[in-house]
């Protein structure tokens, strides 16, 4: 028998073991971590630097953050409640995300801390294998949960920022502008996703009705890329406008977009296209029967 | 419900007032095509302002009316499609290809005037002379 007094080769967690024994072990663990706070924290910060994580931050900042992460970590182990840690993780993410800290770095440092602490436990209990196992049984689930909490907090914060930005982009809404009696222009800038395309079309159709527009110029100079989906949205917008009796002229197709559309075989034969916005407005004026003359010519004629 | 068809100058105006069954639509088509010849109409306006749903049968009937009326010598224009209806139609691929559309009755009349090369102050006598 390698392990004295035990039948099982590996001491599995005893299902009968009272919950308090885990608590006792955790208390012991926490006491150990508190005692060696300075040393472990330094070791952790060193390993973070060595692994070239958090390169966006200075060494002092890393050390300061490491200290508070460490304390929060130990506290979470001690109390078994993760709310404070969660709040801290959110707060930390808020501060470091704008500085370009990546998800793998945050996960990396938390895992490093777990490893550093586990090593120190090995060091302390290496003589008592049985005890070490029980300590690890208590430590591992808690440590994993801590790592999980921090990582999830970080990702959630990132997602919140992404949502916020999407919202902001959407709010840079597309204005429908009347430039002449019965002539609207709709400059589109940025990316067109299905949701935006829908919003855009609805907005345009309403504007056609309220302004009694006969001609609409849609300018897509500001649209960087177009695929068949976007092209189809555009075709739908043109067709829906036509059902309301308005003619649509699309302007500002870049050479790249023109080539893409022909290559992927989108049929835009139904669509009136003019090179640039100026040409589109001139064409629209022609359709509406306007003729713009320089003032001298007008006075000369009169 | 039968759709009233009004004669206004050289145009026939069918103003749909409520949702129509398929039978009503077919009846409208027949009545319009028949009257295009009877009144020697040059234009047909179908006003769908009151419709907030347009199914494929309705769209097909409208298209048929336009094509049939053209064969009988009259230009057709569909007026008053609601923005929501227009959006739903293109999403379903019902786009009334080859059929003229206009915002409302006024626009429809203006369109037909342009199409038939008539002045607003036209009269039947002037038309018959050329």
Quick summary of this structure?
The complex is a heterodimer of chains A (302) and B (130). Chain A has 302 residues and is an alpha/beta fold.
Q: Which key phrases capture this entry?
A:
heterodimer, A: 302 residues, alpha/beta, five-stranded mixed beta sheet, 9% strand, rod-shaped, B: alpha/beta, 5 strands, 45% helix
Order of SSEs of chain B, N→C?
EEHEHEHEHH
Radius of gyration of chain A: 33 Å
Identify the quaternary structure here.
heterodimer
Question: Taking all residues together, what is the mean pLDDT of chain A?
Answer: 83
| Total strand segments of chain B | 5
Query: pLDDT below 50 for ≥5 consecutive residues: which ranges of chain A?
Result: 1-11
Structural class label of chain B: alpha/beta
Strand order of the largest sheet of chain B: 1-2-3-4-5
Rg of Cα set of chain B: 14 Å
Helix-residue proportion of chain A: 55-70%
Q: What's the mean pLDDT score of chain B?
A: 87
> What structural class do the secondary elements of chain A suggest?
alpha/beta
Extended strand count of chain A? 5
Helix content of chain B: 40-55%
CA-based shape of chain A: rod-shaped
- Roughly how many Å apart are the termini of chain B? 39 Å
In whole angstroms, the N-to-C terminal distance of chain A is: 118 Å
